[in-house]
């Protein structure tokens, strides 16, 4: 499976990402210079967290023969400055039907919390290198010295 994504610019702040069999379009709201024809990249990022965990929740339910069609998950972002907050926090709020078997809740949550997107953000230390015309121009890494002292 080719995991490379290719981005082009159809006009304005609209981006078109070729994802193999699919095309993804993003834009910005009008008040931020876009035309508001699609969701913005930040909303796409947040939806990646939510949908990855949602898929894992569904997988758990399927494997355990549990009905999940009435389960809803909401992602609440507590980030005040999504460009500079060193310790962004997100809350997942899962609504389950009253008749959902209580003995499955903790195991289900452990299972869906082990999604690749969240693991990439919380457990791994990703490096993003930027090449322009095959020349390395930038390398961004998380600082190992940053500590969460909010506690």
From TrEMBL:
The record's InterPro entries line, in alphabetical order, gives: KH_dom-like_a/b, OsmC/Ohr_fam, OsmC/Ohrsf
According to the record, the segments passing through the membrane are none
Q: Which Gene3D superfamilies match?
A: 3.30.300.20
The record's section on PANTHER family has: OSMC-LIKE PROTEIN, PROTEIN INVOLVED IN RIMO-MEDIATED BETA-METHYLTHIOLATION OF RIBOSOMAL PROTEIN S12 YCAO
Put simply, this protein is called OsmC family protein
Species this chain originates from: Facklamia hominis
């Amino acid at each position: 499976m080719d995991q490379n994504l290719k981005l082009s610019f159809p006009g304005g702040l609209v981006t078109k990402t070729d994802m193999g069999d699919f095309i993804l379009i993003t834009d910005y709201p009008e008040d931020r210079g876009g035309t508001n024809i699609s969701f913005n990249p930040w909303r796409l990022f947040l939806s990646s967290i939510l949908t990855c965990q949602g898929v894992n929740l569904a997988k758990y339910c399927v494997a355990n023969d549990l009905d999940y069609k009435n389960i809803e998950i909401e992602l609440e972002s507590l980030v005040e400055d999504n460009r500079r907050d060193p310790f962004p926090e997100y809350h997942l709020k899962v609504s389950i039907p009253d008749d959902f078997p209580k003995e499955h809740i903790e195991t289900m949550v452990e299972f869906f919390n082990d999604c690749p997107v969240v693991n990439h953000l919380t457990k791994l230390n990703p490096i993003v290198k930027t090449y322009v015309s095959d020349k390395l121009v930038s390398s961004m890494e998380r600082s190992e010295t940053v500590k969460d002292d909010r506690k």
